[in-house]
Amino acid sequence: MEFRDNKAIYLQIAEYVCEHILLQKWNTDQKLPSVRELAVELEVNPNTVMRTYELLQSKNIISNKRGIGFFVAEDALAHVKNYRKTQFVDDELPIFFRNIYLLNIDFDELQTRYITFIKETFNP
After folding, report:
1. pLDDT tens track for 33-44
2. Quick one: how many helices (H) and strands (E) in the chain?
3. What are phi and psi of 70, to 5 degrees?
4. d(CA 14, CA 61)
5. Mean pLDDT across the chain
6. Which residues, 6+ apart, have CB-to-CB distance to 51 below 8 Å?
7. Which of 18, 33, 46, 100 could disulfide-link 39, Cβ–Cβ 3.0 to 4.6 Å?
8. CA–CA separation, 103 vs 78, rounded Å?
9. Whose CA is closest to 4, among 81, 91, 72, 82?
10. Can you give the pLDDT at residue 57?
11. Is the pTM of this model over 0.70?
């Protein structure tokens, strides 16, 4: 995983976990990689992964079964969508709007590019 400098690593790992849930690579009640396993896989400190898991647990996206590990929570998909939507609307959408305004990109062009992106990315 390539980490960006402009965002805390634990938040980027949270995005990684959320994306796996959204893409249904990890499903409800599925056991997540242990803190150590994910830390080794992503080449980060286990404390960073633990911080990620604590954040996601507080958002009801994952749950901890003591002595067994972390699991995808029952309503994780809905919680991930809510968490990511809030994050997108608050952090990324204003930047997006600013750029389309400054670059004078109209909505028709955006719609065409969006449809092309969906077709190429999710329906190859």
Report:
1. 999 999 999 999
2. 6, 2
3. -100, 140
4. 10
5. 95
6. 10
7. 46
8. 34
9. 91
10. 97
11. yes
